[in-house]
Amino acid sequence: xxxxxxxxxxxxxxxxxxxxxxxREHEPVRWHDEPGGRGFWAVTRHADVWTVDRxxxxxxxxxxxxxxxxxxxxxxxxxxxxxxxxxxPPEHTAFRKLIRQEFTLPAARLREDRIKxxxxxxxxAVIEKGECDFVAEVAGEMPSFVIAELxxxxxxxxxxxxxxxxxxxxAPEALPPGAGAAAVAKMFEYGSGVIAEKRARPGDDLASxxxxxxxDGRKLEDAEFLLFFLLLVDAGGDTTRNLLSGGLLxxxxxxxxxxxxxxxxxxxxxxxxxxxxxWTSPVIYMRRTARHDVELAGQQIREGDKxxxxxxxxxxxPAAFERPEALDLAREPNPHIAFGAGAHNCLGxxxxxxxxxxxxxxxxxxxxxxxxxxxxxxxxxxxISGPKTMPLKFKAR
Length: 397
Ligand code: HEM
Prior knowledge:
The protein is an alpha+beta fold. It is built from 16 helices and 14 strands. It has a five-stranded mixed sheet with strand order 1-2-10-7-3. A hairpin with a 2-residue loop joins strand 5 and strand 6.
C-alpha cells in the first residue's frame, strides 16, 4: 500500500480511509518521510491517539501543532508570543482559563435561540432558489456569523474572515505563492482594527472581555490578543462548515440512514450528529513533539520526534467501534475523538453542537429532494477535510 499522508491529492476525495485502514492493521505508529522536513510518526489507532493527546508530559504542543516546523528564527506567531493551541500546561491552562467561561455548556445554551434564528435566516436566503453552493451559501454562513457575534463584529465581516481561514488551511502548493501568509497578515490587520475599536468602545463581547482581562497580573499584549483572535476565527470556521457539508453528503450517500433520521428528526438528531462527527472528522490531524524518549505501541520514539495524531483514522478503528466502516446514526456508545481528547480538546464543542443541530434541523425540515448536479470539490488540504464547493439542487418542503 502506498502511504502518503502529506500530498493534498490523498485528501482530494475525502480522507484516505484505505491508507488509514492499512496503517492501523500493519503499522499503527509508522515513520512517514517528509519532503524538505524531518519526517514524523503517523499514529492511527484510537487508543494510541488518545494516549498521545492526553499525555502532554511526553508529547508537547510546542513549538507547533502543524507538521511543518516553524521557519528558523521566525517562530509560529509574534516574537516570543504563541497561540494557546501551541502551549503546554501550566501556561496553556492559564490562557484557556481566560476564555473558558464563554464556552461552557450553559454559556453556549444562552446562544441557542440566536443561533436558531441565524439558521432560519441562512435557509431563508436560499430556499426560493432551488439550488445553491451548499458550502458557501449555507454551511459556511453559520460559523462565520457565530464567530462575528461572539466577537461583537458585523456579520458580513465574519464572512470575510472566514474566507481568509480557508486560505490559511489550504495546502500552500494549491495556492498562489505567498497567499497563505498574506491571509494571516490580513487577519492580523483586521484584528488590529478590532483592538482599536473595542478599546475605544468596549462592548458585551468576547473581544472586549479579552482586552480587559489579565494573565499573571497583566493585560494581554496586542500580539497575544491577535493570536487568540486568529485561533478563534480559525478553529470554528471551516471545521463546522465541513461537518455540515460533509454530513449532508454522508446522508445523501446513505438513503436508508437518512430516512431513519427523518422519521423522528428531533429525537434522533443528537446521536446522528455525533456519528456525523465521527464519520467526517473535519480536523485531520494535530501534531505533538516528543519531550523525551518514549515508547508508543512498541515503537521507540526519540526526544524531539514529531508525532502526528490522525483523528479520522482513530474514529474508524474497529478496536473502538463496532462496524466502524458503517454509518450508523443510532450508534451508542460513540467514543469518537473528532474534538480531540486531551488538555486542548475543542473549547468550542458545545457551541459547535448547537450550530450543527440548528443548521441540520433547519436544512432537513425545509429542504429536500437533494441532488448533486456535479461532484463536490474537496479542499486540497492535509489538515482540514471537507468539500470546498458543493453545488446542490433541492426542493422546498
Ligand atoms: C465541527 C466543528 C469542530 C471540530 C471538529 C473541532 C475540532 C477541534 C479539534 C480536533 C481541536 C484540537 C483538539 C486537540 O488537540 O486535542 C480543537 C481545538 C479548539 N477548538 Fe474546535 N472544532 C470545531 C468547532 C469549534 C468552534 C465552533 C470553536 C469556537 C467557536 C472552536 C474552538 C476551538 C479552540 C479555541 C480550540 C483550541 C483549544 C485549546 O488549545 O485548548 N472549535 N477543535
